Every structure is written in structure tokens, then in C-alpha cells.
Amino acid sequence: MILLSVDGLRACYGAAEALSGVSLDVGEGEVVALMGRNGMGKTTTIRAICRMMPSAGRIVFAGRDLTRLPSHRAARLGIGLVPEGRRCFGPLTVAENLAAAARPGPWDAGRVAGLFPRLGERMGQLAATLSGGEQQMLAIGRALATNPRLLILDEATEGLAPLVRAEIRTAIRRLKAETGLAILIVDKSLAELREVADRAVILERGRDVWDGPLHTLDPATADRLLGV
Ligand code: ATP
What we know:
By secondary structure, this protein is an alpha/beta fold.
């Protein structure tokens, strides 16, 4: 079953066209990587899906047309976004950050603590005093606390130490295996994405130019489209 279907997405910043036709699907329980070199439109695609910027084309999520919905409505329909850069409330504790995001459903603070034990040990600590990796775990925890049907991670491990990146990948694999949550993930590391993603969509200059299981991505194409 297709959960998110994006068709012919176009978006501009002023006169500059950033997306000139992006189509992609995410199935129920599927982990899809959105890839491409710098500036190819990954973050813009996510911003348009989450209705944080106007766009043309069709976005259907869980059978509902999101195309003209404002972003707070999209969040309520079940899209949990972990945006680029860790957006936690520094002056609030971990528990308060999770409570502020909470919507009814199985994901509460206890379940987030089960996924990220390090956060569980720090429920009373101010978010501003967490390490970078812990803040990223909290950002993911906040998105999960909204009880989404689709989790979107935009460069969730950028700038983090290899060990923390591995911890977050483990959490993503657990989410997939244990909850069947659909996940759309933007990341630059092909090697790391191969560990978690079922399929990839690659963007080039605001268009999707490759779509398939990651194990079918040959080195020449990866080099051409990703510069790796
Ligand atoms: P990166 O991997 O560097 O984050 P990306 O694939 O996420 O890149 P986008 O951030 O979506 O790419 O950018 C797509 C295009 O839109 C780029 O040409 C970029 O310069 C442009 N762009 C992005 N944000 C803005 C903005 N706020 N104002 C003007 N142009 C923008």
C-alpha cells in the first residue's frame, strides 16, 4: 500500500526553480532514501511535502490530498519531521520537550526511552546541555512523540561522530523491524544508507532521475549522480 505519493512536484525560491518535477512514492513500512548531491533539491522536496513552502504538483498522503494544506494540518495527518539541524527547546528538559510534541498514540516518553536509553537516563536534563548526538536522538524522539505514520529525517546524522551515527542507524532499523513505520530519509552517506534503506530516489537538478533498490545502484551511476 502506498502511503505517500508525490507526483510532478515543482517549487521555486523567488524566480529560481528549485524543483522542476519530482515524483516519488513511499509504501507502508518502507524505508526510502532521498539522495543527490548538494543543492539538488532534497530539503526543498521535504519542505514541500510538509507544506512548509508552496508547490505545484500532487502530494497524496494516506489517501488525502495535501497539496493545499498548511503545515500544521500536515503534521496532524501524521507526518513527523526531523528537520535539518537539531530543533529542540534548549531551556526545556528532555521530558518537557517530548511532552510538548506529544499527540495521542503508542509513542510516549517511555517508549522513546526504550529506543534511546541515553535519553531515558536524562529525562530531567535540560536539552541545551545534551551532547549533539543526544540532541539528535531527542529531535527524533520528538517526531515520534507526535505518533506519525511517516517519519522524515533530513540529514539526521550530519556532523555526528561515527559511533553516534551507528546508534541512530540501529534505532532506524529497530523502528522498521518492530513498528513497521514508513521512513523517508535524506543522508549523504551511501554506505550508511545501504544499511537501512529498502530503496532510493536520487535527485538531480530538481528532478528524480533514479529510483530503485539500493543494491541495484551500480558504481558508475552512483559516481555520476552522487559523486562517490
Ligand atoms: P544540500 O544537500 O546541500 O542540503 P539539497 O539537495 O537539500 O542540498 P535544497 O536545499 O533543496 O538542496 O536546494 C535546492 C536548490 O534551491 C539549490 O539551488 C539551492 O541553492 C536553492 N535554495 C534552497 N533554499 C533556498 C532559499 N531559502 N532561497 C533561495 N534558494 C534556495
